[in-house]
């Protein structure tokens, strides 16, 4: 089943948090000259036109990126992320939202590598087309979880792995934990960032418990809720679970997340959280 299309959701509050974390991790990798691999297991289409029927239907980006992109009181932690958004929106008009592959493409250096997988028959060709002229990159129509076995460890022994499934099938909540375990077995020093939605809190509690049971240490949880938890339909919060986070990430998110919450949720409901699932 591949009915999920990210074009309905691109640039929403969840993308803002996800891509803030993604850009901060990439910037941390760049503090060393040595090349690294960026592996995006569930990459999406890459570029999203915000005037599309899909984006207009939900209008989710209006309560996400549109609320922050031209603020003049933005914390420095958003600079790298915003430089990517601005690169695809010249002229002061928010036309496109760059997904995780395009944010990585903008931030990575000549010596780094991007590997991306996407399964959707419509989104895969769009993504491939974006990267035709980028010889740092490899785009495959393949299963993202499989990459955690076949692509790791990277030759450079430095790697950032973004795992961002749609969770349209319930087994994704277990598949991500198994995938991380497979990846970690091969490459324990990699930085793994797993995105999750909070639709039913119980599902996330179970997933976190299973992650704890893997015995993996240094797992940081970052979350922004736009509503209190609820058992009604829809996503009330989203977050990133980061294994082996760069040492500054906790403090950076403690600075930027309350700002994002204030701007994204002017009603003041919901919450933010930065805490360790398992420390050292
Ligand atoms: N990471 C993207 C971003 O931040 O811009 C968004 C990705 S979207 C949430 C999830 C994507 O995963 C969808 O485009 C979907 O088609 C794709 N997908 C679903 N199952 C997959 C699988 N097993 N392997 C690779 N891609 C998959």
From TrEMBL:
Gene source species: Limnobaculum parvum
Family annotation (Gene3D superfamilies): Vaccinia Virus protein VP39
Binding site for S-adenosyl-L-methionine: 19, 42, 100, 118, 143-144, 164
Catalytic activity entry: adenosine(2030) in 23S rRNA + S-adenosyl-L-methionine = N(6)-methyladenosine(2030) in 23S rRNA + S-adenosyl-L-homocysteine + H(+)
HAMAP family for the chain: 23SrRNA_methyltr_J
EC code: 2.1.1.266
Function comment: Specifically methylates the adenine in position 2030 of 23S rRNA.
Listed name of the protein: Ribosomal RNA large subunit methyltransferase J
GO cellular component, one term: cytosol
Marked site positions, Interaction with substrate rRNA: 4
Gene responsible for this protein: rlmJ
Keyword rRNA processing in record: yes
UniProt-listed GO biological process terms: rRNA base methylation
SUPFAM superfamilies according to UniProt: S-adenosyl-L-methionine-dependent methyltransferases
Family stated for the protein in its record: Belongs to the RlmJ family.
InterPro entries: RlmJ (IPR007473), SAM-dependent_MTases_sf (IPR029063)
Keywords, in A-Z order: Methyltransferase, RNA-binding, rRNA processing, S-adenosyl-L-methionine, Transferase
A matching Pfam family: RsmJ
Entry GO MF terms: 23S rRNA (adenine(2030)-N(6))-methyltransferase activity; RNA binding
Subunit structure: Monomer.
Active site residues according to the UniProt entry: 164
